Fold these 2 entries.
Entry 1:
Amino acid sequence: MTDVIVVGAGPAGAAAALMAARDGLEVVLLERGPFPGSKNAYGGVVYGRVLDDVLPRWWEEVPVQRWVTRRSTMVLTDTQALTVDFRTTAWGEAPYNGCTTFRADFDGWLAGKAVEAGAHLVVNTVATGLIVEGNRVVGVRTDRQDGDLRAPLVIAADGVNSFLAKEAGLLPRTQAKHLTLGVKEVLSLPREVIDERFGVRGDEGVDVELLGCTRGIPGGGFVYTNRDSLSVGVVVSLEHLAASKVRPEELIADLKAHPAIAPWVEGAELKEYTAHLIPEGGYDHLTPLSTAGMLVTGDAAGLCLAAGLWLEGVNFAIGSGLAAGRTARRIIETGDAKPYRAALKDSFVLKDHKRLRGAPRLVLSERVQQRYPGLVADLVEGLFTVGNPTAKPGALRLLRGAAKNNGVKLRHLVADGLAGGRVFK
Amino acid sequence: MADLVVVLARCTDLRVEVDPLTGAISRDPRAAAFSASDAAAVEHGLRLGSAWGARTLVLTAGGPECDARLREVLSLGAEVRRVPVRGSYVEELATDERALAKALVAAIGGRPDLVVCADRSSDRGTGALPAFVAHELGVVQAPGLVSLELVGDDLMGERRLDYGRRERMRIPLPAVCSVEGAGVRLRRASLPASLAAASAVVPVAEVPLPGPAVRVLGARASRPRPRHLPAPTGSSRERLLALTGALLSHEPPTVVGPVDAPEAADALLDFLARNGYLSEARTGWALS
């Protein structure tokens, strides 16, 4: 007798299966690929603090590429780059902060923990639909012979384009407005070359987030260091990308050719190209988290935080999966999904989303995306350009000039500053 | 009739990764899978075992990374066993194939009526293993089969010959048959069977393991020296003319038609014969 069916062995599904199995429930974890992580793609930084209580000293066994000890935010125009760079040795030692990792490694490791706890992992199996009786989900259909599987609780962790959530009426059939498309290239470079170019040693790694590198299409870019490769990519609004008629690989090509990025990737060989949809609608556009007999977790629920300074998905997927697994027994006993929603509400998963609910609109606004990168770059260029014998201009004059050149009125600056203050307070 | 059908199936990463910079070879244990011909061998073994009411044993030589695939086979109703061979890609290339065949035969633990293998392995690739297995068992071998089926009480095989011909043969038992990855597709297990096999322990055969046939002193990426080519002679214009043949006379294109199909076929055959691609004696075609 199966108690819980978890569909999707990504971070959310594996975390849910792990906690439910530890609670003594009979758990079946369905994965459509030949192994967990085989069908997934993502930028590459995982923040593992969420695992502290569940897998103590997880950092000793997680399949890490590099520990991120340097975090940079870079604002780009076609010819300029302004970088805010932070590094700390604290992130390079236990209990660490974030790491770059490959999804096939990480997902396989986490799903392995669920299997160790007693979950039954079935791979190469697609959940093709829900079994509904009355208004209650009582199981899933799969693409295997005799493939109907029944359980009092189904946890949908089947990703951003969740067919189960759609079938349950929780997710609209198309929702391009709140989706972004992430595209990534993995570029092979010798380890020592990466160390030298990024100024790191040993297992230290770098996370560079980029703004202003997407031909005005709302979004951003990233460069992450792996052990002997770089992950380079962009994340752009799906709706605006389609309207622009630009192909995403052209954006990556632009990025790699930018004078600030080109020296990092020079001589690298392309190993892999991946693309993935990302739910970036934020708190106001989350999928309903449950229906009778079914919980929705991770990307399927839209639980991905894209708030400018913070771009996090895997830890939110794990957090929501852990909540689903922890509350599964109570939900089965009472038939009510309130404990899951309450657990999410009390955790960082919904608290962060709620607090930063205004961030997606602000971060993806036309001024932040298309005008402010040029404004700050022009301002800083003006500050550091030595024009003697002309005397140095005042900062306010430079700001006015940069704002004018980039079509920004000072009242817009003030308004957006206040809006940013409200969002990130 | 037969009592024991054995399938020797190889399970390995089918997309070995070669580092484009260093030439280092790496395999992903999670990607271990049966090649098309290995999967066809398993399917033939299952079909024939079922038709005879015989035990079907699927045996593979490899590391624990093969267990997931063997559990899938287990869920299809076959017995499984693994000969614990493990090593780097280079070590595997150096394995003594004859000793491997001995180890596999020892792991069977009985005298099989039929052994089905893939006609080629995905990476070691010699295709010699079925012959060594047949030699160890002292039975006949039928290599390169595209079909293997029971016709009445006879085991019939079919294989390709040159010029598109096929050969059908009656295969006496016991025998070792190697099959191409064609004509059949490995069945999928039902969900209940997959669940039942999901956590099954794959038995590991305790047999003497094969060693290397050759001693590997080192392995490195192939970096052939560039060929020395003589510098081109003549002016750049002359070289361009030589390359493109721009000023040479050419046979003008032949315009055929509009004609009906037989006339078009005759024109084509005539062209081929005129240019030495066909001869009347070889093809038996009467040219008009």
Note: Chain B touches chain A at residues 19-22, 28, 30-31, 33, 68, 72, 188-192, 194-195, 198-199 (CB under 8 Å).
Entry 2:
Amino acid sequence: MSAKGLSLINLEKVYPNRYTGDVHAVDNISMEIQPGEFVTLLGPSGCGKTTTLRMIAGFEKPTGGDIRLGGESIRHLTPDRRDTAMVFQTYALFPNLNVYDNIAYGLKIKKLSRQEIREKVTGILSLTGLEGLESRHTNELSGGQQQRVALARALVMEPGVLLFDEPLSNLDAKLRIQMRTEIRKIQRTVGITAVYVTHDQAEAMSMSDRIVILKDGKIAQTGSPKEVYYHPASEFSANFIGTANTLHGTVKNQENGVLSVSVLGRELNGIPCEREFRQGNDCTLIIRPEACRVQEKGLFEAKVTLSTFMGAYQLYELDIDGCCFTVHENNPKTKRIYDPGETAYLDMDIADIHVI
Amino acid sequence: MFKADRYRLRDPLLSLVIVSVLALLVLFILMPLLSILWGSFVSRDTGAISLDTYLKVFSDKNFRRTFGNTLWLGTVVGILSTVIGFLFAYTRQCIKSPFKKLYGMIEILPIISPPFVLAFSAITLLGRRGLITYKLLGIRNFSIYGFWGLVVVQTMTFFPIAAMTLDGLLENFDVSMEEAARNLGASRFRVFRTVQIPMLASGLANVFLLSFIESATDFSNPTILGGSYTTLATQIYVQAIGNYNQQAGTAIAAILLLVTVGVFVLQKAILDRRSYVTLTGKASRVREMIDDPKLMIPANALCLFISFWVLLFYVFLVLSSFFKTWGANYTLVLKNYEYVLNYSMKPVKDTLLIAMLAAPMGGVLAMVIAFLVVRKRFLGRQLMEYVSMLGMAVPGTVFGLGYILTFNTPPLVLTNTIWILVICLVMTRLPVGVRSAMAALRQIDPSIEEAASDLGARTARVFTSITLPLIRPAFYTGLVFSFIKSMTAISAVIFLVSANYNLLTVRVMQHVDKGQFSYAAALSTLLMLIVFAVVGLMNWCLNHLGRSSRGQINLFSNKEGL
């Protein structure tokens, strides 16, 4: 297999702008991607994720830094000379070619023999579930099928790294979930290195070995889906991945990695924390809504301001001394449901609190 | 290592193509125009640079009259073409009518016929011994020659282009805007006044200026019908070729060039200033046609009246090619065709050969230029765009004279060869081709080309395997269009024909010069027959042979291109 490692070294893209000052679309990004790894670049629009991807593919020229694929710099190569293959957001299928010829396009440029091309295309067609559609025109395909052709066309090149530019954003919700599972499965089977750009956190969580959260052209956090979800490095990360409640408190003391914090007039003891704090420091507590309960007794007294049945959970919004707090009470079927205006207690396990 | 990187960055073929295209444009568009400007400043005898020629020209009473004539004629024809063009466009797009096919045909006719055919019929029908003026109405001293004759013929020739442009604009308006205005309580007239007219304002101005340029640069009609009413475009030829006064011809050419470039810049400024037209594709819904008889009847009556005259002129062009003696004996005979087929086969063959060379060369060049300008970033990109568009503003006679000045002397001597004709036709038709190719390219998602490049295709391969097939309809349209225009061109090439190579259109003018109108009419009819046949043949081939080519070429689907 030809999977390669990819390194971005102090990568930078500056768009000069006389009026507002230079725009740092990508600002000094460095990362190492292992061969066979699935890395997602996640962030709001304008965070530089697509620019980064397009620099890897060669469509944008970096203004600084280097890109290495399999240890060799590819920064000065034109896109056609790079061992990368991209799945485009709009699929970018060639409307003048049928499915087979779309997929065979790059192989023909590689000057493979007819026999080899046929074998490879047939293999990829069955891998992506496109058998029997070879002679269809691209406008005779459904959205999901077009998506598969775009994937097959990139995969068949067996590139050092496979690049995805928000490939699922044009599909409907159900198909999106189905395709993301499928893409991940194929990527695992083939063992190819993949860089995936999206702004959809569910996609990022479900597919990636590692998520890179970008903000304003800089890396906000890197980590496995679990790490970034349970141990967000900042309020931005916490809010971008999933929903998060934040409470501001003051550190009482820290012993053996266990923290005591005073928050909303109460003292919480035994919070696990690896970061070093000093007594009197300000700190932020991050609590996921599904880690909380609304019940008759608990840590904080609260007023229910919103109570909505969502099926899988009951959505509450609570007011605790002017602080707004969101709770997802799972599987509410047999639980006591509080109505807006009622007073209830918010409770949580101390171990579920993350301190930053 | 760094050097090696730099080396790999380059796409040598791409650089080569860019440099060659720029060289072609500079050599065959800029140089001839510069030599006109240069020639008008430099005295032939002393070699000194001065404004003498201009002073001499402007102090000449005849020139000043010619200058005024050109501007006045352009203005009147511009206004009339805009008004009639708008009437046609509005009737086609907004008013209920059973004759829309006919109006569409009227809009297309002048585009596929030589620019001078209506002048012949004007003489046949309205001349001193015209069938209508003399025979029917018995008017003795009626003269079609001069200002009013030119106004009639030029308006009939140029209003269809105005109509087609406005047609395209109206068609692309989002109807929901008009519906919103109606919904808010506006009367139909109020919608017209407050929504449609403001949105069309710049389009109307644009069409006026276009018609003005067409009229000011028209060579053939003033030659045939002008009489003592002289215009700049014809005076260039008369001075430079007729009177062997090349310097005077050059000075007039420079002045006409400045006028048209000025108008062109003005037109571009108007178009750039604002664009209400949402170019997001087709209008969302079909416009409901006005069926109020108070509007429907007069609008249709006017359009039918004008269409009748246009058709009558075409019918009489064909008929007059069979007249035994022009203006005296209207018996229909074949002797004109016998003569023409005996003595004019050489120009027919030359014209076909030259058009068949020029059309594909121009088509490919236009595609390449559009691709480079739209998709690539390089030094000289803007120069390439502007120079290739320059032809739009350059009168044909100026171009022709410039070619003679530039390519009559070493280092590059092309006069008397077939190539000077081919190249001149390619370069004068370039703007239309480039513009429609650019419009077609902008419709294509760039990521399709990026995908090809990502899969390992070099620029040339991307162009040939993806871009070209995708803009193939535009390419074929451009091909047919530039073939037609090469067959019917006159104003530039009349300077460049030689004993070795003559063209049909020029031959027609030579007959006109000798007063042999019957032969001229016969040749013109033959020319139009050839054009129809070739267009029909090409359409048939594309429909029957290219099974995979989605959509036959619709010659006139690309209205912006015209």
Note: DSSP finds eight helices and 20 strands in chain A.
